[in-house]
Structures are given as C-alpha cells and as structure tokens.
C-alpha cells in the first residue's frame, strides 16, 4: 500500500511540475492521425509528425493541432519564497567578554577549526 501511494504521489508531482502532463494528450495525437489518415490514406505516421511538428501550417484544423502533445506549453508550477522586507530584527545589547565571544564562534556548528586544520595540511614525507 505504501508503494502504491508513493508511486501515486510521485506521479502527481511529476505531472504537475514537468512536461510529463503532455503524455496525457497522446490519445488526441492518435485520434488526429486517424482523421488525417482517413483524408489521405497514403500518409505515414512520420509524414504526419513532420506536418504537425517540423513545419506547422495554419490550416483548417489549426485549433486541433494546438491541442496535440508538445505543441503548446504552459507555465509549470513554480514555488517562490520571499522574505517580507518589513521584518525588523532587534538585538539587545549585552556585555560580553571578547574571549567568550570567540569561544562561541569557534564552536559554531557551521565552522569547526579542528576539522579544517586537520584537512588542510601540507603533504608530509616520511624519512626512513
């Protein structure tokens, strides 16, 4: 059940955020090809694709042509985060010892001097 729900959620995500939704229009492509095939029995599928995708022409069925997959594109889902510029940060002033501040920055989660000093060492040659 978890696998099915995962596949469903992944499919929904991909269809809404990528061009994958165009594949849902494939029945329209087949139906439109059958219409063209009934008008011209010698038309191959590759000739049909060239007519509609390589050099599209504005003809009588232009509205139907625009409904085919990968002919027209829409704006996909895009998520944007904006920080409100009216947010103001207030800092209270406290008296700290300078040594205490250095110690706090030194043990920061983002910066660990011991690890960096152990990584960035010049090569050492062993003398035998």
Largest pleated sheet: none
**What are the segments in which pLDDT stays under 50 over at least 5 consecutive residues?**
101-106
Q: Mean pLDDT, rounded to whole units?
A: 78
Overall outline: elongated
Beta fraction of the residues? under 5%
**Whole-number radius of gyration?**
31 Å
| SSE-based structural type | mainly alpha
Distance between the termini: 64 Å
Relative helix content = 40-55%
User: What is the string of helix and strand elements?
Assistant: HHHHHH
How many DSSP-defined strands?
Answer: 0
Determine the number of helices (DSSP H or I, runs of at least 4 residues). 6
Write the layout of secondary structure elements.
Layout: H1 2-17, H2 26-39, H3 45-54, H4 62-66, H5 98-106, H6 113-119
Overall description:
- The protein is mainly α and 128 residues long.
- The chain has a domain at 2-66.
- It contains 6 helices and no strands.
- The chain has helices at 2-17, 26-39, 45-54, 62-66, 98-106, 113-119.
Give the gist of this structure.
With 128 residues, the chain is mainly α. The chain is 48% helix and 0% strand.
List descriptors.
elongated
